[in-house]
């Protein structure tokens, strides 16, 4: 151990390293795989984050549609407009019939009151 303590290692920009060529190639390939894997993972994460944001937008739009459509704030279908017109006509007809029935009922009561008792 004493011999090791006495050995001084000096490093400079002129220092040289001796490494077998197959180990150097293996290190370069491993670094290439690591870099490729890193970019694939970050790309996938970015893609999934974008999809999550888009789903959030779609959910918000769906919620807005779900609330506003029944209220008629987003317009209506032509069939709905036709149906509303028909319902309005039916309501008017029912009102007229009720008025006529009430008039006839009043006339019947009036006639009943005028009938002499024997």
Biggest sheet features? none
Helical residue percent? over 70%
End-to-end span in angstroms? 147 Å
Output the helix-strand order: HHH
Assembly annotation: single chain
User: Would you count the extended β strands for me?
Assistant: 0
Strand content: under 5%
Question: How many individual helices?
Answer: 3
Structural class: mainly alpha
| Mean pLDDT across every amino acid position | 87
Number of domains: 2
Low-confidence stretches: none
Instruction: Report the C-alpha radius of gyration, rounded.
Output: 45 Å
Shape: rod-shaped
Task: Provide an overview of this structure.
The chain is mainly α. The protein has two domains: 57 residues; 43 residues. The protein contains three helices and no strands. The protein starts with a helix and ends with a helix. The model has no long low-confidence stretch (mean pLDDT 87).
